[in-house]
């Protein structure tokens, strides 16, 4: 009897070991694919404006970062501190993006683990691979911002939720959920998604109370950040009320850009519905994919707060639904099913390969500040004066100061780190006016709207820049105007006549230099 029991126990242990190794492979393969895709073309040769902010702020001292957060970007504070530690080792464009690559790989593995835990290993494998080859995930995996890290935190919190509902401790869930929300406060919309999961799965009163305590503690930890960021809400004043096109765009981002990939994924996701009223893959994935974006889209009809990257963490629910639907339709345990599904994911990747390729070029981002810096280095001579219109135009100089070395920034009074701001503190209006009127020529680096629209800034210093430049100066010959990524660099000279310049001789002509790129 004892021998038989030992043998049975041995066989059971061996079976459990094989199952664990199989799950480990299921988790490792999508994580490895995501890591490879993330490292592919990681150094694009330039940062765009949001990445440039991360790069500049993260290289400040901790007290300087803390001072900045009292005025702007409190919502990104924890991420800046994380990146401060990363860039202290080796500052650079590749190092800036590596945490996002690692986080995306972790998220792909966690998605696979969820699929394997709540369904079976092949479901986890398919879901993790689908997540890894999704173009939007690849886009943010190669960006020096917090969104890929938030995705990893949301996936980890969801896996810990499932483990807690299956009898494990609740405190890890609460801790990871709190850290995820502190990385970006709109990750708090994961809380109602998890609440819907608990309600639909009928987990019972005891589990519901424990979840409420853990989730409530996480939300409570977020309150100070929410209060500070509320005072900084003007930073997202550029957001508009989303319409049906925004929702449609997000649906395509979650399931595929269009064509056979989109329709196949949509039909497979629908095939996973409805699920039984218990803890299943569908009861976890559907609220995860739907509740955060739907909530933010609805709230944004009253107060615009929506951008697809703010709910990127919800995307992980979509490949889980697609994989669950495929598993339901196929059903069979044939050994050919798993490789066939994996091949289907590979075909979906080839259909979306042009999007991945474009993302790994400078065209894949809204702007390229390195190009603006190169332009300034080529055209503006050391000792010449430049005006940034408005102040945010200084971000090219902040990100790539090498292009502005020796150039006089006439409006700047104190740098960003010294003033606790992103782009520096400028002179008061009266002082700046005197400085500008003493010049005979200056370069203006302007954002697209500053010179080509009826823009009238509220800030007195910005108004002085605009009025003095437009009323007292005139553009030099056309060959001294350059446009790159929407930014205009233009040489101005004093008008030969005018209310202030009357009687002064016209400035000597500037030898023309050909515009070239």
Outline the fold blueprint:
Blueprint: H1 2-39, H2 49-58, H3 62-69, H4 77-89, H5 93-118, H6 121-133, H7 135-141, H8 147-165, H9 171-183, H10 190-201, H11 205-230, H12 244-255, H13 259-271, H14 281-299, H15 317-330, H16 337-351, H17 353-359, H18 369-379, E1 385-389, H19 395-399, E2 408-409, E3 412-414, H20 416-419, E4 425-426, H21 429-437, E5 441-446, H22 448-451, H23 460-472, E6 473-475, E7 481-484, E8 487-494
Helix pairs in contact: 1-5, 1-6, 2-4, 3-4, 5-6, 5-7, 5-8, 5-15, 6-15, 6-16, 8-9, 9-11, 10-14, 13-15, 14-15, 21-23
Describe what this molecule looks like in 3D:
The protein is α/β, with parallel strands linked by helices. The chain is built from 23 helices and eight strands. Strand 1 (385-389), helix 19 (395-399) and strand 2 form a beta-alpha-beta unit.
Major sheet, described briefly? 6 strands, mixed
Indicate the mean pLDDT: 89
Oligomeric category: single chain
CA-based shape: elongated
* End-to-end separation: 85 Å
Helix content: 55-70%
Instruction: List the uncertain runs.
Output: 1-8, 498-517
Number of helical stretches of at least 4 residues: 23
Task: Compute the number of strand runs.
Answer: 8
Q: Supply Rg.
A: 27 Å
Question: Percent of residues in beta strands?
Answer: 5-15%
Structural category is: alpha/beta
Keywords:
517 residues; alpha/beta; six-stranded mixed beta sheet; 23 helices; 60% helix; elongated; disordered N terminus
């Amino acid at each position: 009897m004892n021998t038989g029991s030992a043998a049975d126990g041995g066989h059971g242990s061996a079976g459990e070991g094989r199952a664990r190794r199989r799950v480990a492979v299921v988790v490792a393969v999508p994580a490895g694919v995501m890591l490879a895709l993330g490292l592919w073309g990681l150094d694009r040769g330039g940062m765009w404006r949001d990445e440039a902010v991360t790069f500049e702020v993260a290289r400040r001292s901790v007290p300087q970062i803390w001072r900045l957060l009292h005025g702007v970007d409190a919502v990104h504070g924890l991420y800046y501190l994380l990146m401060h530690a990363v860039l202290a080792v080796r500052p650079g464009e590749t190092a800036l993006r590596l945490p996002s690559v690692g986080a995306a790989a972790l998220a792909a593995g966690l998605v696979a683990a969820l699929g394997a835990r709540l369904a079976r290993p092949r479901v986890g494998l398919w879901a993790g691979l689908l997540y890894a080859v999704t173009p939007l995930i690849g886009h943010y995996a190669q960006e020096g911002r917090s969104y890929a890290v938030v995705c990893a935190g949301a996936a980890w919190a969801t896996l810990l939720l499932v483990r807690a509902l299956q009898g494990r401790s609740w405190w890890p869930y609460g801790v990871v959920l709190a850290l995820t929300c502190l990385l970006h406060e709109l990750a708090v919309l994961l809380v109602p998604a998890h609440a819907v999961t608990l309600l639909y799965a009928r987990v019972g009163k005891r589990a519901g109370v424990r979840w409420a305590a853990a989730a409530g503690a996480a939300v409570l930890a977020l309150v100070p950040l929410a209060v500070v960021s509320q005072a900084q809400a003007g930073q997202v004043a550029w957001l508009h009320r989303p319409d049906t096109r925004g929702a449609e765009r997000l649906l395509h981002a979650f399931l595929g850009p269009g064509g056979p990939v989109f329709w196949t994924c949509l039909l497979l996701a629908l095939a996973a519905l409805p699920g039984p009223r218990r803890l299943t893959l569908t009861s976890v994935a559907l609220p995860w994919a739907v509740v955060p974006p739907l909530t933010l889209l609805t709230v944004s009809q009253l107060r615009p707060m929506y951008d697809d990257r703010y709910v990127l963490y919800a995307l992980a629910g979509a490949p889980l639904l697609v994989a669950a639907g495929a598993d339901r339709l196929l059903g069979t345990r044939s050994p050919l099913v798993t490789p066939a599904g994996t091949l289907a994911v590979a075909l979906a990747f080839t259909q979306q390969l042009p999007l991945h390729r474009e993302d790994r070029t400078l065209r894949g981002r809204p702007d390229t500040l390195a190009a603006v810096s190169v332009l300034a280095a080529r055209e503006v001579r050391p000792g010449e004066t430049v005006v940034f219109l408005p102040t945010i135009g200084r971000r090219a100089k902040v990100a790539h100061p090498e292009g502005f070395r020796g150039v006089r920034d006439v409006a700047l009074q104190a740098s960003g780190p010294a003033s606790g701001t992103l782009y520096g503190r400028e002179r008061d209006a009266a002082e700046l006016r005197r400085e500008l009127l003493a010049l005979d020529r200056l370069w203006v680096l302007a954002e697209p709207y500053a010179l080509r629209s009826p823009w009238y800034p509220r800030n007195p210093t910005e108004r002085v820049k605009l009025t003095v430049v437009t009323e007292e100066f005139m553009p030099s010959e056309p060959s001294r105007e350059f446009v790159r990524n929407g930014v205009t660099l233009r040489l101005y000279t004093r008008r030969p006549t005018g209310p202030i310049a009357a009687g002064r001789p016209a400035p000597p002509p500037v030898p023309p230099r050909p515009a070239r790129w």
